[in-house]
Amino acid sequence: MQTLNAPVALEWTVASAAVAGGLAIAVVGAGYGLTNTSGVGAGFFPTVAGTLMALAGVLWLLQLAAARKTAAAAPAIGDILESVPPHRDSGSALVSLLDDDNSEEPEADFPDRQGIARVGIIAAAILLAALLLPYLGYTIVMTLMLGSILFLVSKRKLWLAVLVAVGAALASRLVFEVWLGTALPTASIDFLAGLGL
Amino acid sequence: MGFDQLLGGLATVFTPEHLLFALIGCVLGMLVGVLPGFGPAAAVSLLIPVTFGLDATSAIIMLAAILYGAAYGGTTTAVLLRIPGEASSIATTLDGYQMAKQGRGGPALVIAALASFVGGLIGVVGFVVVAPFSRLALEFGAPELFLVSLLGFALITSFAGSNPAKALLSAAAGLAIATVGVDSGVGIARFTFDMPELFDGLGLVAIVMGVFGLSEVLGQAQKGPLGVPSPLKVARLLPTRTDLRRSALPSLRGSVIGFFMGLLPGSPGAATSLASYAAEKKLSKRSKEFGRGAVEGIAGPESANNALAVSSMIPLFTLGIPTSATVAIMAGAFTMNGLIPGPLLFRDNPDVAWAIIASLIVGNLILLVLNVPLARVWIAVLKVPFHYLMAAILAFMFLGTYSINGSAFDILIMLGAGLLGYVFQLVKVPLTPLVLGLILGPLLEENFQRSLALSRGDYNVFLQGPISLTLIGVIVLAILFGAVRPLIASMLKKKTITPVASKELAK
């Protein structure tokens, strides 16, 4: 189970990163030159983007600080209001249009430790696959990526994970190379290349 | 009016080749649309690589069909499984699932499809009426185009997401990402770290696939194996005459609501369909039936949803400004296919422009026919364990991203964008402004630079003429409204919630 503070801690981290990142972008951007003879320089827009990012981060941090103050003052009422189910059917067209809860953006639940591990394994598998693609070629890389995700994330039996991964890699190679005419990379290691991989 | 051109467009679409691509697009869109969490934006971004190798017209017709198919797919699961495939189908779950529980899943799906068709048709008619005004936009110079882009930016930031600060952060991040690469003005390499792969900037498709596709897969994967509830039966297919009569006016009203809401940048489909639902509930003589299987509760939101999907393309076609995530992705697809979205499209490629508009009708027609017969197939797809679906989606994304430029570097960009999108979802930062910032950023920069170059550095160029002044006024209003919107919404919500909370406290 995650601690109650984990989502809030992440918000503080992301907001702080936005301030730091925004400032860095603005400073580096300004180095490209804010003005030139014909008007604005190459650094003008990066500086604006970085400044806006930092400003948004500061506003978010202020909101978080204000929320912490409010929560400390009246936790009981806050909890009850939080527990009231969201009123999707508000009965008012105006509220529906203005209501933040109706945002089209998907919302993810905060992950527990296992959830973070699953996300980490998928990200690591894609990263390694992308880095190894020029050396091991498509078939091996796709088999390793899918096999490790199915075995480690989906907890399939090893033989099943390997079987599905090999099948998917070969089938997708067939579809892309034969049907769509897209050349997929082969291994640059001689031994593997000799095997047609 | 452009009805003659629309007929010409229909003639272009009614070729076996284009019809086939529209059909494939509809089916693929529905297939992805039924997956929980995968709405039209994710579906289009995932399936863009499928259109590589097609000519521009076929590619856009197919992508438009994918967009519609995804929306219909979301409706099917909303009715039979109570799982809205996308946020804008939430309103449909309220009465659609209740109808299915009463053994009327078939009529619910048919009403949804008919209402969607009406919404799409009215949307296209409105589109044809509005399209000639795009000629006015041809008169716009660089300063006006800069201000129009700035207006789109301000509206999106003001309307999207849970709070303006987070929306601004997302949009600014998009702007910052857009500045990577060699500057078009003076040719300076920005944020490229001497990496040749970054000289042309970060690839739009890779970022969109990451932000909307991979982040969704990661969000689903973190939950572990998911169970899918047993679907309800479709049973008898055709609605009764009473169903049809009762859904006629709500479909028309929903279409009008959806059409006008789609013209406003940033208006989300979920809010629009819920607004239509609320309006129907207020107007209906049978308001007590709402939530218990009222056909009006399906017809209104579904037509609103589809009319919005069409009209939200109007700002893209007339001004070149995308106003939602889905339309932004479509704008990217236009550019990838060598088409410039905006008024120039009607001037330079009128055949393509009208064929795309006509394909919106054809796509709706195909889906009207396919929706119900394929419902059982989609439910069977959902029964496939999510591990295998996830593996298939990841493999497809990996391959699709690689095939953009034949470069593994794009996969790394997709991964980075996916992780950023995932973290943004966790902290409830909206993703739409990021993509819009990415697309509007170059437009803003180019027109800003051109304006100042023309005026020799005089900033008064943005204050000259009634169009510019009007645009500035609207931008200020949009920013002010964005700032007070959360306050108005929370005041209106409190009126509803407070009595409930009081009861809870009393307990």
Descriptive account of the structure:
The complex is a heterodimer of chains A (197) and B (507). By secondary structure, chain A is mainly alpha-helical. Chain A has 7 helices and 2 strands. Chain A has 2 domains: 77 residues; 78 residues, no CATH class. In chain A, a hairpin with a 2-residue loop joins strand 1 and strand 2. In chain A, helix 1 runs antiparallel to helix 2. The two termini of chain A are 44 Å apart. About 10% of the residues of chain A have low confidence. Chain B has one domain. A two-stranded antiparallel ribbon of chain B has the order 1-2. In chain B, strand 1 and strand 2 form a beta hairpin. The N and C termini of chain B lie far apart (63 Å). The C terminus of chain B is likely disordered. Chains A and B meet through helix 1, strand 1, strand 2, helix 2 and helix 3 of A and helix 5, helix 9, helix 10, helix 12 and helix 19 of B.
Question: How would you concisely characterize the structure shown here?
Answer:
Chain A is mainly alpha-helical and 197 residues long.
- Describe the strand arrangement of the main beta sheet of chain A, using strand numbers: 1-2
Report the count of strand segments of chain A. 2
Provide the spatial order of strands within the biggest beta sheet of chain B: 1-2
User: What is the C-alpha radius of gyration of chain B, as a whole number of Å?
Assistant: 23 Å
Q: How many strands, what sense, and barrel or not for the largest sheet of chain B?
A: 2 strands, antiparallel
Number of domains of chain B: 1
Supply database-style keywords:
heterodimer; A: about 200 residues; mainly alpha; 2 domains; two-stranded antiparallel sheet; 2 strands; B: about 500 residues; 22 helices; about 70% helix; globular; disordered C terminus
Topology at a glance:
The complex is a heterodimer of chains A (197) and B (507).
Chain A: H1 6-30, E1 35-36, E2 39-40, H2 44-73, H3 75-83, H4 93-98, H5 113-153, H6 158-179, H7 190-194
Chain B: H1 3-13, H2 16-33, H3 40-47, H4 56-80, H5 90-101, H6 105-130, H7 134-137, H8 142-159, H9 164-178, E1 181-182, E2 189-190, H10 204-221, H11 241-263, H12 269-283, H13 296-311, H14 314-319, H15 325-336, H16 343-348, H17 350-370, H18 375-383, H19 386-405, H20 408-426, H21 432-454, H22 466-506
Antiparallel strand pairs in B: 1-2
